[in-house]
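Quick start: read one record
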Amino acid sequence: VQLQAFGGGLVQPGGSLRLSCAASGFTTDDYAIGWFRQAPGKEREGVSCISTSDGSTYYADSVKGRFTISRDNAKNTVYLQMNSLKPEDTAVYYCTALVRVTSYWGQGTQVTVSS
């Protein structure tokens, strides 16, 4: 399984970014895929994920109403649309997938929210 994350960058508070995660190598269509983030000096936290089986989604309370996760099945790509970004959203964002009890991680992409 390979996960490649794209789309990080520097944005001003209130701005938007879209992260992409291209996934490949799965042998099943039933898994969860999403994003964690880790800010300097803080623990890694779950941000959002989506189930491939039923499309159900999860959002951390801190991003509800601002972030939207979606999936393009044809491209095997998951997107995280991040709106109304705040300085506290600054972190390295990691794409991750959970297949049964095995987790897979992609490389991180830096998101910096600063004026």
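The chain is about 0% helix and 55% strand.
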